[in-house]
Amino acid sequence: SQLREKEMIITRSLREASRQASQVIGIDLSDSDELRCVNLMCEHVGERCACRLALWFHRHEFPRMRTLILRGNDLRTVPEPICQLQNLIELDLSNNRLEEIPESFAR
């Protein structure tokens, strides 16, 4: 599902965000099964994992992204590519199991 406001998109789907990356201003991935890891080399395969999110943000650019909600995904770390979202204003990481945050967040 998504909201459209004058060509700006807020979505709850990685697939939808990928299709319209230049228009996306927000993604709400609260408690999202789309973050389940499928990388057989990852120790968290089958669980929600930051590596899946990191790969996705590495492959797609979101020049207008202002809001990213990752609440309730049991993430242990924040993927480095999120630090490169230059227009990001709101990042909700509540209700995760964060053990590590990239140093680039301090910049």
Explain what you see.
The chain has 107 residues and is of the alpha/beta class. The protein is 15% helix and 18% strand. The N terminus is likely disordered.
Short overview:
The chain has helices at residues 14-19, 50-59, and strands at residues 2-5, 8-11, 24-28, 67-69, 90-92.
Say how many strands there are: 5
Mean pLDDT: 86
Largest sheet: 5 strands, mixed
N-to-C series of helices and strands: EEHEHEE
Spans of at least 5 consecutive residues whose pLDDT stays below 50 are 1-5
How are the strands of the biggest sheet laid out side by side?
Answer: 1-2-3-4-5
What is the first-to-last residue Cα distance?
34 Å
By secondary-structure content and strand pairing, the structural class works out as alpha/beta
Give the secondary structure arrangement, pairings included.
Elements (H helix, E strand, L loop, with lengths): L1 E4 L2 E4 L2 H6 L4 E5 L21 H10 L7 E3 L20 E3 L15
Parallel strand pairs: 2-3, 3-4, 4-5
Antiparallel strand pairs: 1-2
Keywords for this structure?
107 residues; 2 helices; alpha/beta; disordered N terminus; 5 strands
